[in-house]
Write a structure and sequence with these properties.
By secondary structure, this protein is α/β, with parallel strands linked by helices. Helix content is 48%, strand content 13%. Strands 1, 2, 3, 4, 5, 6, 7 and 8 form an eight-stranded mixed β-sheet that branches. Strand 1, helix 1 and strand 2 form a beta-alpha-beta unit. Helix 2 packs across helix 6. It is globular. It starts with 13 loop residues before the first strand and ends with a helix.
Protein backbone atom coordinates (compact mmCIF):
# COMPACT_ATOMS: atom_id res chain seq x y z
CA UNK A 1 0.00 0.00 0.00
CA UNK A 2 1.40 3.38 -0.99
CA UNK A 3 1.85 5.76 1.92
CA UNK A 4 0.17 9.03 0.97
CA UNK A 5 1.96 12.25 1.80
CA UNK A 6 0.26 15.65 2.03
CA UNK A 7 0.37 17.33 -1.36
CA UNK A 8 2.99 20.06 -1.14
CA UNK A 9 1.36 23.36 -2.13
CA UNK A 10 2.98 25.43 -4.84
CA UNK A 11 5.13 28.30 -3.68
CA UNK A 12 3.02 31.36 -2.97
CA UNK A 13 -0.23 29.45 -2.44
CA UNK A 14 -2.07 29.12 0.85
CA UNK A 15 -2.63 25.49 1.92
CA UNK A 16 -6.21 24.43 2.66
CA UNK A 17 -8.33 21.31 2.99
CA UNK A 18 -11.74 21.04 1.32
CA UNK A 19 -14.89 19.42 2.72
CA UNK A 20 -17.41 18.59 -0.02
CA UNK A 21 -21.05 17.80 0.73
CA UNK A 22 -23.18 15.42 -1.30
CA UNK A 23 -26.54 16.19 -2.87
CA UNK A 24 -27.02 14.39 -6.18
CA UNK A 25 -27.22 16.70 -9.17
CA UNK A 26 -26.89 19.65 -6.77
CA UNK A 27 -23.23 18.62 -6.59
CA UNK A 28 -22.84 20.65 -9.78
CA UNK A 29 -22.81 23.69 -7.48
CA UNK A 30 -19.64 22.29 -5.86
CA UNK A 31 -18.25 21.65 -9.36
CA UNK A 32 -18.55 25.39 -10.01
CA UNK A 33 -16.87 26.21 -6.69
CA UNK A 34 -13.97 23.86 -7.39
CA UNK A 35 -13.63 25.10 -10.95
CA UNK A 36 -13.24 28.68 -9.73
CA UNK A 37 -10.81 27.79 -6.93
CA UNK A 38 -8.62 25.86 -9.36
CA UNK A 39 -8.78 28.64 -11.95
CA UNK A 40 -7.81 31.20 -9.30
CA UNK A 41 -4.85 29.07 -8.25
CA UNK A 42 -4.01 30.83 -4.99
CA UNK A 43 -5.03 27.93 -2.73
CA UNK A 44 -2.88 24.83 -2.30
CA UNK A 45 -5.46 22.06 -1.94
CA UNK A 46 -3.85 19.40 0.24
CA UNK A 47 -6.74 17.09 1.14
CA UNK A 48 -10.45 16.65 0.51
CA UNK A 49 -13.07 14.97 2.68
CA UNK A 50 -16.22 14.17 0.76
CA UNK A 51 -19.32 12.05 0.46
CA UNK A 52 -21.83 11.13 -2.26
CA UNK A 53 -21.72 13.65 -5.14
CA UNK A 54 -18.89 15.32 -3.25
CA UNK A 55 -16.90 12.09 -3.54
CA UNK A 56 -17.43 12.05 -7.29
CA UNK A 57 -16.25 15.63 -7.58
CA UNK A 58 -13.26 14.79 -5.40
CA UNK A 59 -12.03 11.75 -7.33
CA UNK A 60 -12.51 13.44 -10.72
CA UNK A 61 -10.63 16.52 -9.55
CA UNK A 62 -7.85 14.61 -7.77
CA UNK A 63 -7.25 12.37 -10.77
CA UNK A 64 -7.21 15.38 -13.08
CA UNK A 65 -4.66 17.13 -10.85
CA UNK A 66 -2.46 14.02 -10.87
CA UNK A 67 -2.22 14.05 -14.67
CA UNK A 68 -2.42 17.73 -15.50
CA UNK A 69 -2.22 19.97 -12.46
CA UNK A 70 -5.05 22.37 -11.66
CA UNK A 71 -6.09 22.71 -15.29
CA UNK A 72 -6.24 18.93 -15.47
CA UNK A 73 -8.52 18.96 -12.43
CA UNK A 74 -10.85 21.44 -14.10
CA UNK A 75 -10.93 19.40 -17.31
CA UNK A 76 -11.78 16.16 -15.52
CA UNK A 77 -14.56 17.80 -13.51
CA UNK A 78 -16.15 19.09 -16.70
CA UNK A 79 -15.76 15.71 -18.38
CA UNK A 80 -17.43 14.00 -15.43
CA UNK A 81 -20.49 16.29 -15.40
CA UNK A 82 -20.87 16.09 -19.17
CA UNK A 83 -20.93 12.31 -18.85
CA UNK A 84 -23.55 12.62 -16.10
CA UNK A 85 -25.73 14.70 -18.42
CA UNK A 86 -25.23 12.33 -21.34
CA UNK A 87 -25.98 9.23 -19.27
CA UNK A 88 -28.87 10.93 -17.50
CA UNK A 89 -30.70 11.48 -20.78
CA UNK A 90 -31.17 7.74 -20.92
CA UNK A 91 -31.65 6.74 -17.30
CA UNK A 92 -32.95 9.59 -15.13
CA UNK A 93 -36.56 9.25 -13.95
CA UNK A 94 -37.07 12.96 -14.59
CA UNK A 95 -35.89 12.67 -18.16
CA UNK A 96 -38.81 10.33 -18.87
CA UNK A 97 -41.28 13.14 -18.36
CA UNK A 98 -41.29 15.70 -21.21
CA UNK A 99 -44.04 17.67 -19.48
CA UNK A 100 -41.61 18.80 -16.73
CA UNK A 101 -40.62 22.01 -18.54
CA UNK A 102 -44.22 22.56 -19.60
CA UNK A 103 -45.30 22.41 -15.94
CA UNK A 104 -42.47 24.73 -14.96
CA UNK A 105 -43.76 27.25 -17.48
CA UNK A 106 -46.90 27.54 -15.36
CA UNK A 107 -44.89 27.97 -12.16
CA UNK A 108 -45.54 24.41 -10.99
CA UNK A 109 -42.59 23.09 -8.99
CA UNK A 110 -40.99 19.89 -10.37
CA UNK A 111 -41.58 18.15 -7.02
CA UNK A 112 -45.28 18.17 -7.90
CA UNK A 113 -44.83 16.43 -11.24
CA UNK A 114 -46.49 13.07 -11.92
CA UNK A 115 -43.11 11.60 -12.90
CA UNK A 116 -41.47 12.34 -9.57
CA UNK A 117 -44.50 11.28 -7.53
CA UNK A 118 -44.64 7.98 -9.41
CA UNK A 119 -40.92 7.36 -8.98
CA UNK A 120 -40.99 8.33 -5.30
CA UNK A 121 -43.98 6.08 -4.63
CA UNK A 122 -42.29 3.12 -6.32
CA UNK A 123 -39.11 3.49 -4.27
CA UNK A 124 -41.15 3.53 -1.04
CA UNK A 125 -43.27 0.52 -2.00
CA UNK A 126 -40.54 -1.65 -3.52
CA UNK A 127 -36.88 -1.99 -2.60
CA UNK A 128 -34.05 -1.63 -5.13
CA UNK A 129 -33.57 -5.39 -4.80
CA UNK A 130 -37.05 -5.74 -6.38
CA UNK A 131 -36.98 -2.80 -8.79
CA UNK A 132 -33.40 -3.36 -9.94
CA UNK A 133 -32.54 -7.04 -9.31
CA UNK A 134 -29.56 -6.91 -11.69
CA UNK A 135 -28.15 -4.04 -9.61
CA UNK A 136 -27.50 -1.83 -12.62
CA UNK A 137 -25.97 1.56 -11.80
CA UNK A 138 -25.09 3.84 -14.74
CA UNK A 139 -22.81 5.90 -12.50
CA UNK A 140 -20.30 3.06 -12.48
CA UNK A 141 -19.61 3.42 -16.19
CA UNK A 142 -19.29 7.20 -15.83
CA UNK A 143 -16.74 6.91 -13.02
CA UNK A 144 -14.67 4.24 -14.73
CA UNK A 145 -14.64 6.22 -17.97
CA UNK A 146 -13.47 9.45 -16.33
CA UNK A 147 -11.17 8.24 -13.52
CA UNK A 148 -8.17 5.89 -13.49
CA UNK A 149 -8.55 4.49 -9.98
CA UNK A 150 -5.27 2.57 -10.13
CA UNK A 151 -3.43 5.86 -10.54
CA UNK A 152 -5.33 7.37 -7.61
CA UNK A 153 -4.36 4.33 -5.50
CA UNK A 154 -0.67 4.70 -6.25
CA UNK A 155 0.06 8.31 -7.15
CA UNK A 156 1.94 10.20 -4.42
CA UNK A 157 1.51 13.67 -5.91
CA UNK A 158 -2.26 13.96 -6.05
CA UNK A 159 -4.61 15.38 -3.43
CA UNK A 160 -5.20 13.20 -0.38
CA UNK A 161 -8.79 11.94 -0.24
CA UNK A 162 -11.08 10.87 2.60
CA UNK A 163 -14.39 9.50 1.28
CA UNK A 164 -17.12 8.55 3.76
CA UNK A 165 -19.69 5.76 3.60
CA UNK A 166 -22.10 4.32 6.19
CA UNK A 167 -21.63 0.69 7.24
CA UNK A 168 -25.12 -0.85 7.04
CA UNK A 169 -24.34 -3.57 9.57
CA UNK A 170 -22.70 -1.45 12.27
CA UNK A 171 -24.17 1.97 11.53
CA UNK A 172 -20.67 3.43 11.82
CA UNK A 173 -18.85 5.70 9.42
CA UNK A 174 -16.15 4.22 7.18
CA UNK A 175 -13.55 6.56 5.72
CA UNK A 176 -11.80 5.34 2.58
CA UNK A 177 -8.45 6.83 1.55
CA UNK A 178 -6.57 6.96 -1.76
CA UNK A 179 -5.11 3.46 -1.53
CA UNK A 180 -8.61 2.01 -1.03
CA UNK A 181 -10.37 3.76 -3.87
CA UNK A 182 -12.37 2.07 -6.63
CA UNK A 183 -15.62 2.72 -8.46
CA UNK A 184 -17.32 0.50 -5.85
CA UNK A 185 -16.03 2.68 -3.02
CA UNK A 186 -17.27 5.88 -4.64
CA UNK A 187 -20.65 4.30 -5.38
CA UNK A 188 -20.82 3.16 -1.75
CA UNK A 189 -20.38 6.74 -0.54
CA UNK A 190 -23.33 7.75 -2.77
CA UNK A 191 -25.65 4.77 -2.23
CA UNK A 192 -29.15 6.06 -1.43
CA UNK A 193 -30.86 2.96 0.01
CA UNK A 194 -34.27 3.68 -1.55
CA UNK A 195 -32.72 3.75 -5.03
CA UNK A 196 -29.64 1.49 -5.02
CA UNK A 197 -28.71 -1.83 -3.47
CA UNK A 198 -26.11 -1.58 -0.71
CA UNK A 199 -22.61 -1.62 -2.16
CA UNK A 200 -20.29 -4.38 -0.98
CA UNK A 201 -16.65 -3.48 -0.34
CA UNK A 202 -14.28 -6.01 1.25
CA UNK A 203 -17.14 -8.07 2.65
CA UNK A 204 -19.06 -5.18 4.23
CA UNK A 205 -22.10 -3.37 2.82
CA UNK A 206 -22.42 0.39 2.66
CA UNK A 207 -24.99 3.14 2.16
CA UNK A 208 -24.54 6.84 1.49
CA UNK A 209 -21.94 8.49 3.70
CA UNK A 210 -24.19 11.48 4.26
CA UNK A 211 -26.01 9.64 7.06
CA UNK A 212 -22.89 9.73 9.24
CA UNK A 213 -20.68 12.45 7.74
CA UNK A 214 -21.68 14.99 5.14
CA UNK A 215 -18.79 15.43 4.95
CA UNK A 216 -16.65 14.12 7.81
CA UNK A 217 -14.33 16.81 9.16
CA UNK A 218 -12.31 14.76 11.63
CA UNK A 219 -10.02 13.11 9.02
CA UNK A 220 -8.91 16.59 8.00
CA UNK A 221 -8.17 17.44 11.64
CA UNK A 222 -6.17 14.28 12.29
CA UNK A 223 -4.43 13.89 8.93
CA UNK A 224 -4.60 17.19 7.06
CA UNK A 225 -1.43 19.27 7.05
CA UNK A 226 -3.37 22.55 6.97
CA UNK A 227 -5.50 23.97 9.78
CA UNK A 228 -7.81 25.64 7.23
CA UNK A 229 -10.94 23.75 6.16
CA UNK A 230 -13.15 25.18 3.43
CA UNK A 231 -16.63 23.60 3.57
CA UNK A 232 -18.52 23.61 0.27
CA UNK A 233 -22.19 23.42 1.27
CA UNK A 234 -24.84 21.90 -0.97
CA UNK A 235 -27.65 21.33 1.55
CA UNK A 236 -29.10 24.52 3.06
CA UNK A 237 -28.66 24.73 6.83
CA UNK A 238 -31.62 27.06 7.37
CA UNK A 239 -34.93 27.56 5.59
CA UNK A 240 -37.08 30.60 6.43
CA UNK A 241 -40.32 29.04 5.17
CA UNK A 242 -42.17 26.38 7.14
CA UNK A 243 -42.53 23.25 4.97
CA UNK A 244 -46.20 22.33 4.69
CA UNK A 245 -46.54 20.18 1.57
CA UNK A 246 -45.41 16.56 1.44
CA UNK A 247 -42.47 17.25 -0.92
CA UNK A 248 -41.36 20.24 1.16
CA UNK A 249 -41.48 18.20 4.38
CA UNK A 250 -39.58 15.31 2.80
CA UNK A 251 -36.98 17.70 1.42
CA UNK A 252 -36.44 19.40 4.78
CA UNK A 253 -36.15 16.08 6.63
CA UNK A 254 -33.50 15.09 4.11
CA UNK A 255 -31.57 18.33 4.61
CA UNK A 256 -31.68 18.14 8.41
CA UNK A 257 -30.58 14.50 8.41
CA UNK A 258 -27.71 15.08 6.02
CA UNK A 259 -26.51 18.20 7.87
CA UNK A 260 -26.71 16.72 11.39
CA UNK A 261 -23.28 15.09 11.48
CA UNK A 262 -21.61 18.24 10.16
CA UNK A 263 -23.34 20.34 12.81
CA UNK A 264 -22.11 18.00 15.55
CA UNK A 265 -18.51 18.21 14.37
CA UNK A 266 -18.68 21.98 14.05
CA UNK A 267 -19.96 22.23 17.61
CA UNK A 268 -17.01 20.16 18.82
CA UNK A 269 -14.60 22.36 16.85
CA UNK A 270 -16.17 25.50 18.35
CA UNK A 271 -15.84 24.01 21.84
CA UNK A 272 -12.14 23.11 21.44
CA UNK A 273 -11.42 26.49 19.84
CA UNK A 274 -12.91 28.24 22.83
CA UNK A 275 -10.82 26.14 25.22
CA UNK A 276 -7.67 26.97 23.22
CA UNK A 277 -8.51 30.68 23.16
CA UNK A 278 -9.14 30.69 26.92
CA UNK A 279 -5.89 28.85 27.64
CA UNK A 280 -7.68 25.88 29.21
CA UNK A 281 -5.94 23.29 27.01
CA UNK A 282 -2.43 22.89 25.63
CA UNK A 283 -2.39 24.87 22.37
CA UNK A 284 0.58 22.77 21.18
CA UNK A 285 -1.49 19.62 21.50
CA UNK A 286 -4.83 20.91 20.24
CA UNK A 287 -4.85 22.84 16.98
CA UNK A 288 -7.26 25.69 16.54
CA UNK A 289 -9.01 24.82 13.27
CA UNK A 290 -9.77 27.67 10.89
CA UNK A 291 -13.16 27.16 9.26
CA UNK A 292 -14.40 28.70 6.03
CA UNK A 293 -17.68 28.24 4.21
CA UNK A 294 -18.77 28.59 0.59
CA UNK A 295 -22.52 28.39 0.16
CA UNK A 296 -25.53 29.99 -1.49
CA UNK A 297 -28.54 29.02 0.58
CA UNK A 298 -30.71 31.58 -1.19
CA UNK A 299 -30.22 29.70 -4.46
CA UNK A 300 -30.30 26.17 -3.07
CA UNK A 301 -33.53 26.59 -1.09
CA UNK A 302 -35.28 27.27 -4.39
CA UNK A 303 -34.47 23.73 -5.52
CA UNK A 304 -36.71 20.87 -4.47
CA UNK A 305 -35.67 17.31 -3.73
CA UNK A 306 -36.70 16.14 -7.22
CA UNK A 307 -34.05 18.30 -8.84
CA UNK A 308 -31.33 16.24 -7.12
CA UNK A 309 -32.14 13.63 -9.77
CA UNK A 310 -32.15 16.09 -12.66
CA UNK A 311 -29.15 15.56 -15.01
CA UNK A 312 -30.24 18.13 -17.61
CA UNK A 313 -27.10 19.89 -18.91
CA UNK A 314 -28.74 23.31 -18.80
CA UNK A 315 -29.61 22.77 -15.12
CA UNK A 316 -26.14 21.47 -14.24
CA UNK A 317 -24.48 24.37 -16.06
CA UNK A 318 -26.65 26.82 -14.16
CA UNK A 319 -25.57 25.33 -10.82
CA UNK A 320 -21.95 25.42 -11.94
CA UNK A 321 -22.30 29.13 -12.69
CA UNK A 322 -23.86 29.72 -9.26
CA UNK A 323 -20.98 27.82 -7.63
CA UNK A 324 -18.35 29.80 -9.53
CA UNK A 325 -19.99 33.05 -8.48
CA UNK A 326 -20.12 31.95 -4.83
CA UNK A 327 -16.45 30.95 -4.89
CA UNK A 328 -15.48 34.23 -6.51
CA UNK A 329 -17.35 36.16 -3.81
CA UNK A 330 -15.61 34.13 -1.11
CA UNK A 331 -12.18 34.68 -2.63
CA UNK A 332 -12.81 38.41 -2.90
CA UNK A 333 -14.06 38.80 0.65
CA UNK A 334 -12.20 36.15 2.62
CA UNK A 335 -9.04 34.93 0.89
CA UNK A 336 -6.83 37.12 3.10
CA UNK A 337 -8.16 35.30 6.18
CA UNK A 338 -6.84 31.91 5.06
CA UNK A 339 -4.08 30.78 7.41
CA UNK A 340 -4.94 33.51 9.91
CA UNK A 341 -8.50 33.15 11.17
CA UNK A 342 -11.86 31.58 10.41
CA UNK A 343 -13.94 33.48 7.89
CA UNK A 344 -17.22 32.51 9.56
CA UNK A 345 -18.49 32.67 13.11
CA UNK A 346 -18.42 28.93 13.78
CA UNK A 347 -20.41 29.11 17.02
CA UNK A 348 -22.96 31.53 15.59
CA UNK A 349 -23.44 29.50 12.42
CA UNK A 350 -23.56 25.95 13.78
CA UNK A 351 -24.54 26.16 17.47
Amino acid sequence: MTQMKPLRPKRGTRPVNLALQGGGAHGAFAWGVLDKLLEDGRLGIQAMSATSAGSMNAVAMAYGISIGGYEGGRAKLEEFWKEIARTGQMFSPLQTAPWEKWLAGFGIHPDYSPAFFAFDALTHMFSPYQLNPMNFNPLRDVLEKVVDFKRLNECEITTRLFLSATNVRTGKIKVFENADLSSDVVLATACLPYIFQAVEVAGEHYWDGGFMGNPAIYPLIYHGASRDVVIVHVNPIERPKLPVTAPEIYDRINEISFNSSLLREMRAIAFVSRLVDEGNVDAKRYNRMLIHSIRDDAEMIMLGVATKLNPDWEFLSHLKAVGRRSAEDWLTNHFDKVGKTSSIDVAGTFL
